[in-house]
Amino acid sequence: MSKVKQFGEKVEGYTIPVLNEREIRASAGILFLLVFISIMLAIFKGNFIMLKYFIIGFLVDFIIRIFINPKYSPTLILGRLIVSRQVPEYVGAVQKKFAWVIGLFLAVIMLFLVVIVNSFSVITGLICLICMVFLFFESAFGICLGCLTYGWFYGKKAQYCPGEVCDLKNKDDIQKTSFTQLLIVMAFIAYIVVSVYLFNDFFSEAPSDLWEIIRTARAN
């Protein structure tokens, strides 16, 4: 029973239980895709059915992670299958648990407001935004925002962070950003803003059927 109900794995060379960051990122990507589709359906179609199912599934998944064992979490199992050919990247389990408790807390609020009360408000919109930001940063950048608050809350540094961000070190040359590169980013943003200003009316026109355009062109 003790092997079933535990949090994190004991790996040789690590002094505390750890988890595989690669499967966690894969799981976060799956959850992000599902919540993104659910929110888009709710916003543009007024259809909250998928969002309600997502909230229930998210809640059960995180209950399994926190109170039973992360390796029995359905989305983490899928993540493990997806990245099974990649070399594991071990991270401390304790800070991940803290981050997931935050996710569970938000899921309980959403369950009450959206599923039970069957309502939507600024509160539910803000929680959805927070969840999307957390999942996106985890899946895209490998940055666990919930884990960052672990040090602030407990007043001690987490161990075995993704990319060794917990350890102070000098950046390699390939990691440094020059002033010229920053100018390029700012110029690109300015280019996007100008493009929106100049072409907004043109791009706002609804697209026409390609074959209809071809037939019209041939007729003329």
The number of helical elements comes to 8
**What does the overall shape look like?**
globular
SSE sequence, one letter per element: EHHHEHHHHH
Number of strands: 2
Describe the sheet with the most strands: 2 strands, antiparallel
Key structural traits:
220 residues, mainly alpha, two-stranded antiparallel ribbon, 3% strand
Model description:
- With 220 residues, the protein is an all-alpha fold.
- The chain folds into 2 domains: 151 residues, no CATH class; 45 residues, no CATH class.
- 65% of the residues lie in helices and 3% in strands.
- Strands 1-2 form a two-stranded antiparallel ribbon.
- Helix 2 packs antiparallel against helix 4 and helix 4 crosses helix 6.
- The radius of gyration is 22 Å and the shape is globular.
Topology:
Layout: E1 18-20, H1 21-45, H2 49-67, H3 74-82, E2 90-92, H4 93-116, H5 122-141, H6 145-154, H7 179-203, H8 210-219
Antiparallel strand pairs: 1-2
Helix pairs in contact: 1-2, 1-3, 1-5, 2-4, 4-6
